[in-house]
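Subject: for your reference before the review

Hello V.,

The reviewers asked for a structural picture of the protein, and I figured it would be easier to keep everything in one thread rather than splitting it across files. Below is the amino acid sequence we used in the manuscript, unchanged from the supplementary table.
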Amino acid sequence: MTVKKIMNKELVTVRPSSTLIEVAQKMKEYRIGSVLVVEEGWKLKGIVTDRDVAIAVAADSKDPKTTFACEIMTADPICIAADADFDSALRIMNQATVRRLPVTEDGKVVGLLSSADMAREIKDEFQQFIGLEEAFAKQCC
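And here is what came back from the structure prediction:
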């Protein structure tokens, strides 16, 4: 199974010059925990998580009205190709200790793969397996 099949294709993005207020409002509006920071042409510059915003404002006392996404983002985040397989994505997330991977294709960001996306896929496959086992058990007995 490829990353493209399970990634979230509905990207929520901000510009590097977006304030933390704007970033937080997008997260709230879309009920998400991260936004991708992009420039023209979908060129990925970084990623900002809700944790990044919380630490910047609460722990580092940054003003959310005058602090910009580019100041707190993880610049040049680890990405994965859309045609990569599930196991590769899992291995990268584990080694890098990240829960989100921007997905790229032809140098442009086309999706976001989260650990929740992967967990859902594993659950779905497990449910299918259980269904097959139950059907087999009914035939045999």
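For the response letter, the relevant points are probably these. The chain has a mean pLDDT of 90. The chain is about 45% helix and 25% strand.

Happy to draft the paragraph if you're swamped.

O.
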